[in-house]
Amino acid sequence: MLDLYGLGNALVDTDVEIDDVFLSDEGLAKGQMTLVDSSRMANLVSKLGSRPMRKCSGGSAANTVFAAQAFGLSTSYTCRLADDENGRHFSTEMQNAGIATSSISETASETRRSGQCLVLVSPDAQRTMCTDLGVSSELDKDIVDVEALRDARSLYIEGYLSSSEQSGQTAAYCHQIAKDAGTLVALTLSDVSMITFCKEGLTAMLGDGVHTLFCNAEEALAWSKTDRLDVAIAELSDIAQELYVTLGASGAQAVTREGSWRAPGEVVAPLDTNGAGDIFAGACLAARLQGASPRDAAAFANRAAAKIITQFGARLPRVDDYKSLMA
Questions:
Q1: Which of 106, 108, 130, 179 is spaced 20 to 30 A from 310 at the CA atom?
Q2: What per-residue confidence (pLDDT) applies to 327?
Q3: So what's the pLDDT on residue 282?
Q4: Longest C-alpha distance within the chain, in Å?
Q5: Partners of 187 in the β-ladder
Q6: What's the alpha-carbon Rg for the chain, to the nearest Å?
Q7: Whole-angstrom Cα distance, residue 299 to residue 314?
Q8: For position 140, what pLDDT does the model report?
Q9: Do 86 and 76 form a contact (C-beta atoms < 8 A)?
């Protein structure tokens, strides 16, 4: 039996430091995610010139599952990969971490490549993402391991899947299988851009509600179309039995049917906020599935998020670094 069955995009993250002028010149909204095609991705990379770049397997749900595995859960990850450098890099890195990962299933070509996410890190640690989903956007039902999903304790879905009609439908399909099997469903809203442009898809993925929902304050306000966080939390609490709203340095709000608690944050000097929400979800799910209370799980998740933003990249350098956080 798996503890966590993950479903999401398979991307290779490429981190690079830029200034705000670059974002302005390229018409990119600071701090948000923009979907681009392969041609636009190649153009952006060429304009970055000789700036140092760091590569790591990524994708929001993949980062969460990686953290959950490192924090002690047994996990799998369902995604679509092409047979190219990024696809092989992703597959090897995930499987080396002990995560059962979908096999490479596509022959690569100029128009069919594995997904890539260009993470542009500003001097104030904000990250602006340009994502070429590649074949990852074609997450169809045939790739789902139905028996493994039915036997899993929890299913985790990333909201970014709502940007693709096919992937969103597969996410809704998995949600229904999990619900019928008694598997807990967790989902993250992922990004304000998904709420702004893909809310219909997100709503379909949420179905009649989930067990656990993750978002940050900005996403909560955007979902509820309000400037009052308490109103947004009340609305989202109708969707999820457990709601976790991250608040940056102020910590996180954990809300359940039994009550609401503010888990304190940790003040650190951030270098790169990329992956903070991903590791928060992974740490929180790992703690909850290993018996922690919602408040303690949120506190542990805050600690993990504070750690990740003091370095570049969405994952800690070594699995032992995750284990040290648990200790």
A1: 130
A2: 86
A3: 98
A4: 53
A5: 157, 213
A6: 18
A7: 19
A8: 94
A9: no
Per-residue model confidence (pLDDT) at position 25: 96
Residue for token digits 């092989």?
88
SS (H, E, C) the chain: CCCEEEECCCEEEEEEECCHHHHHHHCCCCCCEEECCHHHHHHHHHHCCCCCCEEEEECHHHHHHHHHHHCCCCEEEECCCECCHHHHHHHHHHHHCCCEECCCCECCCCCCCCEEEEEEECCCCCEEEEEECHHHHCCCHHHCCHHHHHHCCEEEEEHHHHHCHHHHHHHHHHHHHHHHHCCEEEEECCCHHHHHHHHHHHHHHHCCCEEEEEEEHHHHHHHHCCCCHHHHHHHHHCCEEEEEEECHHHCEEEEECCEEEEECCCCCCCCCCCCHHHHHHHHHHHHHHCCCCHHHHHHHHHHHHHHHCCCCCCCCCCHHHHHHHHC
Mean pLDDT (10-residue bins), the chain, 327 residues:
96 92 95 88 90 89 97 98 92 95 86 89 91 92 97 98 96 98 98 95 97 98 98 98 96 97 91 91 98 97 96 89 91
Alpha-carbon distances, residue 51 vs 47, 257, 272, 309, 323 (angstroms): 10, 49, 16, 21, 32
- What is the residue extent of each domain of the chain? 4-326
Q: In this structure, are residues 322 and 282 in contact, taking their beta carbons and an 8 Å threshold?
A: no
Whole-prediction pTM: 0.91
4-326: which CATH architecture?
3-Layer(aba) Sandwich (3.40)
